[in-house]
């Protein structure tokens, strides 16, 4: 990670609805990527006045999760604005890695189908790479089967035209895919370690992702799980972006 720390400059687009949880997510990305603060620019979008910075200033973009759901019957003005900003990333040539909500958004924006047939409660999920993943520059070097952290209410039921399924799993059929030549998305959260997801659970205790009485059990499970292989996707993405930029 020395090359990334010394040379790369990345953007984290944050869609969280509170200062504390936004800081927690930024901390997770700093730890997970190994990037110093001056190389990972935190850019929250919390109002319709917040827009993307000049993307040409960055080697790559990360998009964090969100409490929004594309399957909600009504999208508020902020969600619509978030979608406009994410669409700019989706059609931009700059490499972008979208996590969790990005899985739903990229399918929704590309004409795929998102429903609530395969939700996953907060915890660990098995992730299995597809045959197509072997040739992918981001996920091709990952273990063929690994464990990721998940917690979501909706899931991709049908990929958009042109998308390439990169990872599936027994509890959710779409765990990762390449939406286009510059955009990768995952349903699982590679940025968090065990303590990160336990901290994050504190912000969503009554949001329906888990039952409060399950916290102790979930904490024990995630602490006993090797999450390093899932985190590797962050480092592979950084390496890809730096190579693309000639760094």
Automatic annotation (TrEMBL):
One of its GO terms (molecular function) is GMP synthase (glutamine-hydrolyzing) activity. Keywords: Ligase. It comes from the Bacteria. Its EC number is 6.3.5.2. Residues 45-193 form the Glutamine amidotransferase domain. The keyword rRNA processing does not apply. InterPro entries: ChyE-like (IPR044992), Class_I_gatase-like (IPR029062), GATASE (IPR017926). This is GMP synthase (Glutamine-hydrolyzing).
